[in-house]
Amino acid sequence: MSSIPAKHRLRNRIWQQRYLLILTLPVVLWMIVFNYIPMYGLIIAFQEYTPFQGFIHSPWLGFGNFRELFADPTFRESLYNTFKISIAKLVFGFPAPVILALLLNELVFKRFKRIVQSLTYLPYFVSWVLVVGFMYTLLDPDTGVISKLLVNLGVIGSDTMLMGDSKSFLVLVVFTEIWKNIGWNSIIYLAAIAGIDPQLYEAAVVDGANRFRRVWHITLPALKPTIIILLILSIGGLVNSNFDQMFMMQNSMTQDAANVLSVYSYKMGLVSGRFSYGTAIGLFQSIVAFVLMYIANFTSNKITKESLF
After folding, report:
1. Which DSSP string do the residues of 87-147 spell out, in sequence order?
2. 3-state DSSP call for residue 196?
3. What are the pLDDT digits (tens) for 243-282?
4. 3-class SS at 47?
């Protein structure tokens, strides 16, 4: 055991890694300024906050905002919509980038693989404003190419407006979410696949394993830790929905289906000027997200021995 005191060892280690610490300093400062300092504002969830009175002088309500929140039928509806949409995205959207990464890894022609990768990455950088605008154009019942195709196939009626149909809203939300993010989310899986020892595949080929067997017995087990960690994070985000997507896709005919917690918090907090009530909704989301992630992490640790901490 080293005779150097722990204090001196820590000082030496800091000095040895000083350049790495300097590189991380801007990120740490950014986290403190934009993530931790604003947490002081959560106090207004327990107040009847007004900008003129400020944090200190606004009337204290305690849990009054939360009691009103849980008694609000619109809040319960938005909570139901949030979980319904988030669970659908998790069930159909989470496996999609894994499957794409596996398919891309099996492509033999490298040039074609790069083209496919580029085409699947590009939608991630397109704003939801443009995506929803394209959707309205393509799904227009009179001039939309996709609408006319679905009419000719007998899937929908000639007068069906898909962007204004609350029944098709969930399908469109999940489909566009997958289309927009599948390529970007597959990057981390492709990186994990790139770290697999090629000798494992060579040995499997010698043993007579076909492509499916190599994927099942080598690639997927190697991806298991990455898949579990990202699944835990995704479960923690079930109570949080994509505000940009929901806000842009809502209209007078689908606003009930699009009324998720993030949109409801925006409407109550900023549009209606009820800052305390909107903050209470956001704080509720954060607490539920933490509880869900903790449960998912605990369950994963017990079953698979893989966890975040």
Report:
1. HHHHHHHSHHHHHHHHHHHH-S-HHHHHHHHHHHHGGGGS-HHHHHHHHHHHT-TTT-HHH
2. coil
3. 999 999 998 888 888 899 999 999 999 898 899 999 999 9
4. strand
